[in-house]
Structures are given as structure tokens and as C-alpha cells.
Amino acid sequence: MLNLICCVIVTISQAVETHHHQEVDALWVRWENGDAAAMDSLISMGPLARKLGHQLLHSGHNEEPSFPTGRNLELLSALLADAMPELATALPEFDEADREECLIFLEGIGGDVLQCDHGRCRSGQGRFARPLADVLVNMYDSADGWHQELILRILAKAGAGSELRVAELNRGISECYFGDTSTVEADEDFGRLRGLLEIFGLGPEPAVANRIRSIAVFHPNVSIRNRALVLYLSSQNDPVFAASYLDDIESEETGLGEVSPRRYAMETLLTCKTLPKSISNQLLKILYRASFEDVSLDISDLCEVICRCESFDVDSMRFVDCKIRELLSDNTMIEESLRPSLVRACAAAVVLRCYPEDEIAAAYLLRILSSEQIEPLYGPKGSQFRDPRAEAARAFRRVPALAQRLLNLKLVNDLLESELSERPGSDFCIECALLLATLDSKNALCIEAIRGTDESTLVRLSDSWAEVQRILGDRASKLIDSEKVTKQVRSNEFVTDSSNPWAWERLQPVASDIIPLLKNHLDSPNTEIRLGAIRALRHLKANSDITAQLLMQCMNDESIEIKIAAIDALADLPASADLSAPQLQLMLDSDYLSISISAEMAISQIRRLRDAEKESSQPCSAH
Predict the structure, then answer these.
(1) CA 568, 455, 261: angle at the middle one, nearest 5?
(2) What is the reported pTM?
């Protein structure tokens, strides 16, 4: 009897498998005959994608595999990780040209944008190359220099092959750490090491962080030191180390962007507000050396970072007393190219930040606040200088008690009315509105002035929608036209437009009204609409259990794209980790490689975000 039951089970399993293979064959015929809709079904085949991969790599019933082109390449890229095992089997058998095309393709899927007409390939897909890691590692030794670099980049973007990359970095260090740095061979070695460091920037491993830190300190070549320092600080929050070594490192244009000691110091001071005073002072001194005289350093940014810093020691205060305060004097010569009125407004803001009772700084800012607008002045590379009046309004906003005492509400209201009628959306219009909102909790004019502000204006003002909403409090929801927003969110076109995630962030005050509408989109039969709704939930940043529950329901969707999008969105909701963790753990064992890899990355991301939250809640301490 038992044998009979086993035979029946085997027969049923074989019948089901045969049915699935017949289904794949039928969809394949439809795809070959030009039915683009067949792709939606093909990319959801999961484990059966190996059969599809084989067909794509052996088109025309060729025994030898070849790398696909055209529509077949589109389908291969849409199959994600589930076709990679078959590609891993075929890759060593490709001829030289196909192997190169394959490596370029794999390197491309890790970039920000992959050029695919069907639109299926999205950013972050480099991780799906992980099933090829062992094959790529084995190919590395026999590859030439350029192909070796491609392989290392693929492995870095896939978060795989860390042992090989660590070994190659150490080899690169040993090859060019010593010797005559003036020879052509040495230049080539330095170039290779710089490339290796940049590759590590794509996915740095903790195991090599200390090695890179040592390069930043001891390497005899300044270019190597610069790049190592940039890489180390981009992946490690180490302000103590930065304060010690940024001072001696020259600014350099690198593949990671233009990096300068002042820029790093500025960003560190803006983001880490509880630094020990000794470290804060060292970082501030890096900025102070430029003072307000270096046109390469934005004056408004320098003012912003000093005013935001919460830790000042005696030396820092002495610098403000001796060097910044003197800029308020008309006798101090300031080049016209730096726009003296703006320099003095920024200087007064810094003085007032350190000494809220300073009458000279306050009087100057009052005078600037009431002055006529000066024609916009453009600085280096066409950048527009901030309006001095905007800096004055921002300075008073930082000291609300003083502003309440010195500022006449009618004056501020009249200034805003005038600016709103003549130059709506200007820097001063927004800053004046935020100042008025700080002073008068019932004023409606500030809402009218801020409504319609675009993200680029807030970025220029060093603000965000989150900051605006914090200042406005309960009034933030009044910025939003509920009837208009409801109509927009109900629109399929608005939901599927992924070009502006900020459109969703600014709607956060009415998230509770929007989420039910997005829930309706999640029930749409159209995959793109469901994807758009998931993106909206992600960008709304409504870090609630309701959002997590909706995304967890999407993880049961029949579409593999929807499952992956939901997993990626959950990765940005660390506060809901306790709710989503069990289901993410289950996804690790999925038969679909794309899903299991996404779940693994999501769990790691949630862990990193939680650790970062813990670190940010504690004062930075000396190492």
C-alpha cells in the first residue's frame, strides 16, 4: 500500500512538472512570435527560469552557447537571478567576444540605470549576479587586466567575492607600496591601486577597512592616501580619525566625486551634532582656515554648518570673536566678487548663533531684513548666491526667543506679503514664511507662501520637507490641497510616475488619507500600477505597521517584480522590522533566487539602519 502511495505521488509530481514545462514552452513560442505580454508570465517562472535561460543561450538549437542579443537579451535581464545559474554554466564556454559582452552586461546591471527598452531592469540589480560569483572568481586569474577589473566590479556590486577582492587589494598594496614613484611602471601600479580602492567603494567589507585606513595614513603617494581616505570615510563614521588626517590631505578629483577636507568636515558637522568639543573644534578649524575668503567654499554653507554645530570650545569662540566678528565692520574690506552684504549677513548669523545677545549682529540682521532686494549675483560655475535677506531671516529663526523680543510681527508679515506678491517662491519668501511660522502659530500667510515650493528651492536653503513640516507642526497638512491630492493619487498616471519621489515625501502629513487609496492600486491587475503604489509607500516614509502590513501582503503577489519591490521597500522601514522579520526570514528559503537574495539584502539593510539609529542616539566618543 505504501509503495502504491509513493508511486501515485511520484506520478502526480511528474505530471505537474511536465505541465509546467509545457507552459514554459507555450509561452516561449508566444514570445518568439512577438507577443511582448508573454514576458510578464515568463519572468515569474522562478526555478523554471533555468530552462528559459538554456533556451536563450542556445537559440537556434546550437550546441555551443552564445550570449543573446536584442529581445532575447531583454528577457534574460528580466529573469534576474533565476537565470544566472544557467549563465554561470555557459559563461566559461563562451567565445572571447561573447564572454566580453557578458561581462559588460553583468557590470551594467549593477549601475544606476540599465538601458533596456522594456523597462524591466531597475537600479540595484547588481546583487542578482551573485549566483555567478564562484565562476567569476575562477575566471579571474586567466583574465586580462581590463576583464579582471570588470570581474571585480561585478563582484563588488553583487556583494560577493569579498575574499578575492581583499586578496587583490593586498596584492595591489604590496606591488606599489614601495619604490621609485617617478617611473612609468610605478604610475601604472598606482593607477591600478586607485582603481582597486574605487572598486571597494562599491561594496566595502569590514575586513579591509583597517587596511584602507592604514593606506590613508602611511602610503608614500599623496594620491593614494587621498583616495584611501575618501573611501574609508565614505564607509566608516570616524570623525576622530577625520579630524586628525583631513588637515594634511589635499583636495582631489576622484571617481567618487570631488572630495575635499572642508567638504567632509562640513558634512560631518551637519550630520553628527553631538561630537566631542575637541573633535568639533578640529573639524571647524579646517573650515575656518578658508574663512569667508575662499570662493570655492559656499559662504552660505559655511554659515549654515557653523550655526548648526552644537559644540563650541574656547578656541572656536575665540575665532568667532577675532575673525568673524570683524567682518561686520564697514572698515573690513571684502571683495565685491564675494558680495559683501551676503558675507556680513552670514557673519552676523554666526555671531548671533554663538552670542544671542549680541546687539551689533542683531542690529545688522534687522537692517538687512528690511532692505530692498539686490539684483541676484552669480558666483563660480554659474551658481547663484543666496539672498542676504534670506540669511537674516534664517538667523533669527535659529534664536526664536530673541526674534520674539526684537521683531515686530507686522513688519515680518508686511515683508512676506510684499515678497509673495512680487517674487513668490524666492529664497527670502520661503525663509520669511518659516520665520513667521516660528513667531506666530496661527498665521495663515506663511502657509500660502510655502504652498507650491519645489524641492530644489528647499535644497538650496539647506532644508527638507521634513524640516518644514516640523516647523509648521499641525499646520503642515494645510499645505496640501486634499481634493487635488486625492484626485492625483487616484490617477494611475500619477502613481506610475516614478520621476519625483519628493512628490510623495511632501504628502506625508496626509499619509493616513493617501494609504487607503494606494491600497486600491495594490489590487490593480496592472503590474506597473502595483509597482508604483509600492514605490509611493516607500517614499511616503510612513513608518507604520499599516504600511508594513500592506507591503507584506504584496510579498504574496504572483509577480516576482512585486515581491522584490515589496521586500526592498520593507528594507527602508526598520521600525517595523519586528513585524516583517519572520516573513523576510521565510523568503530566504524561496525557490526563487531573486527573492531570496532580495530578502537577504533587506535583512542586512534593516540591521544597518537599526545600528545607525542606535549610534545616532548616543554621543560620538573619541576612539
Answers:
(1) 80
(2) 0.71
